[in-house]
Protein backbone atom coordinates (compact mmCIF):
# COMPACT_ATOMS: atom_id res chain seq x y z
CA UNK A 1 0.00 0.00 0.00
CA UNK A 2 1.61 3.30 -1.06
CA UNK A 3 1.32 6.22 1.32
CA UNK A 4 -0.13 9.60 0.46
CA UNK A 5 0.29 12.58 2.76
CA UNK A 6 -3.15 13.60 4.03
CA UNK A 7 -4.42 17.13 3.59
CA UNK A 8 -5.35 19.18 6.67
CA UNK A 9 -9.02 18.42 6.02
CA UNK A 10 -8.16 14.74 5.56
CA UNK A 11 -6.34 14.67 8.89
CA UNK A 12 -9.17 16.48 10.63
CA UNK A 13 -11.81 14.05 9.31
CA UNK A 14 -9.70 10.98 10.09
CA UNK A 15 -9.02 12.30 13.60
CA UNK A 16 -12.76 12.73 14.28
CA UNK A 17 -13.43 9.16 13.20
CA UNK A 18 -10.45 7.72 15.11
CA UNK A 19 -11.37 9.52 18.32
CA UNK A 20 -14.99 8.37 18.12
CA UNK A 21 -13.70 4.85 18.90
CA UNK A 22 -11.46 5.62 21.84
CA UNK A 23 -11.79 7.09 25.35
CA UNK A 24 -8.57 9.11 25.34
CA UNK A 25 -7.91 11.19 22.24
CA UNK A 26 -5.23 11.19 19.63
CA UNK A 27 -4.01 14.70 18.80
CA UNK A 28 -1.70 16.24 16.23
CA UNK A 29 1.46 17.40 18.04
CA UNK A 30 4.45 18.71 16.04
CA UNK A 31 2.73 17.40 12.91
CA UNK A 32 2.56 13.86 14.28
CA UNK A 33 -0.43 11.73 15.34
CA UNK A 34 0.19 11.59 19.08
CA UNK A 35 -1.28 9.83 22.10
CA UNK A 36 -0.19 9.17 25.69
CA UNK A 37 -1.25 5.66 26.75
CA UNK A 38 -1.47 4.94 30.47
CA UNK A 39 -1.57 1.36 31.82
CA UNK A 40 -2.04 -0.16 35.26
CA UNK A 41 1.64 -1.06 35.54
CA UNK A 42 4.87 -1.55 33.59
CA UNK A 43 4.06 -5.11 32.55
CA UNK A 44 0.85 -3.99 30.81
CA UNK A 45 2.68 -1.11 29.16
CA UNK A 46 5.41 -3.40 27.90
CA UNK A 47 2.86 -6.00 26.77
CA UNK A 48 1.19 -3.29 24.69
CA UNK A 49 4.56 -2.38 23.16
CA UNK A 50 5.30 -6.03 22.42
CA UNK A 51 1.98 -6.62 20.62
CA UNK A 52 2.41 -3.36 18.74
CA UNK A 53 6.00 -4.20 17.79
CA UNK A 54 4.96 -7.43 16.09
CA UNK A 55 2.30 -5.55 14.13
CA UNK A 56 4.48 -2.62 13.07
CA UNK A 57 7.18 -5.01 11.87
CA UNK A 58 4.62 -6.91 9.79
CA UNK A 59 3.35 -3.63 8.29
CA UNK A 60 6.83 -2.12 8.02
CA UNK A 61 5.47 1.08 9.52
CA UNK A 62 7.15 2.11 12.78
CA UNK A 63 6.16 4.45 15.62
CA UNK A 64 8.24 7.00 17.43
CA UNK A 65 7.55 6.06 21.05
CA UNK A 66 8.90 6.25 24.59
CA UNK A 67 8.04 4.35 27.76
CA UNK A 68 8.16 5.56 31.36
CA UNK A 69 6.92 2.92 33.85
CA UNK A 70 3.17 2.55 32.99
CA UNK A 71 3.05 5.26 30.30
CA UNK A 72 3.79 4.95 26.60
CA UNK A 73 3.90 8.10 24.46
CA UNK A 74 3.29 7.28 20.78
CA UNK A 75 3.89 9.58 17.83
CA UNK A 76 3.05 8.46 14.30
CA UNK A 77 4.17 10.01 11.03
CA UNK A 78 4.98 8.57 7.61
CA UNK A 79 8.60 9.56 7.04
CA UNK A 80 8.52 8.53 3.36
CA UNK A 81 5.95 11.24 2.59
CA UNK A 82 6.94 13.72 5.28
CA UNK A 83 3.57 13.83 6.95
CA UNK A 84 0.62 11.93 8.43
CA UNK A 85 -0.91 9.33 6.09
CA UNK A 86 -3.56 6.58 6.21
CA UNK A 87 -0.84 4.22 7.46
CA UNK A 88 -0.58 6.26 10.64
CA UNK A 89 -4.33 6.14 11.26
CA UNK A 90 -4.39 2.40 10.60
CA UNK A 91 -1.63 1.86 13.14
CA UNK A 92 -3.31 4.21 15.64
CA UNK A 93 -6.56 2.20 15.43
CA UNK A 94 -4.66 -1.06 15.98
CA UNK A 95 -2.74 0.36 18.94
CA UNK A 96 -6.00 1.43 20.56
CA UNK A 97 -7.17 -2.17 20.22
CA UNK A 98 -3.92 -3.56 21.65
CA UNK A 99 -4.33 -1.16 24.59
CA UNK A 100 -7.68 -2.80 25.32
C1 LIG B 1 13.04 1.16 4.17
C2 LIG B 1 11.79 1.01 5.03
O1 LIG B 1 10.86 0.18 4.38
C3 LIG B 1 11.13 2.37 5.20
O2 LIG B 1 12.06 3.24 5.78
C4 LIG B 1 9.88 2.29 6.09
C5 LIG B 1 10.18 1.78 7.47
N1 LIG B 1 9.24 2.22 8.47
C6 LIG B 1 8.58 3.40 8.35
N2 LIG B 1 7.88 3.91 9.38
C7 LIG B 1 7.26 5.10 9.28
N3 LIG B 1 6.58 5.60 10.34
N4 LIG B 1 7.33 5.80 8.15
C8 LIG B 1 7.97 5.39 7.06
O3 LIG B 1 7.99 6.09 6.04
C9 LIG B 1 8.64 4.11 7.12
N5 LIG B 1 9.31 3.61 6.08
TrEMBL record:
Its EC number is 4.2.1.96. Keywords: Lyase. One of its GO terms (molecular function) is 4-alpha-hydroxytetrahydrobiopterin dehydratase activity. Gene3D superfamilies: Transcriptional coactivator/pterin dehydratase. The keyword DNA repair does not apply. It catalyses: (4aS,6R)-4a-hydroxy-L-erythro-5,6,7,8-tetrahydrobiopterin = (6R)-L-erythro-6,7-dihydrobiopterin + H2O. The keyword Transferase does not apply. Belongs to the pterin-4-alpha-carbinolamine dehydratase family. PANTHER family: PTERIN-4-ALPHA-CARBINOLAMINE DEHYDRATASE (PTHR12599). This is Putative pterin-4-alpha-carbinolamine dehydratase. It comes from Marinomonas arenicola.
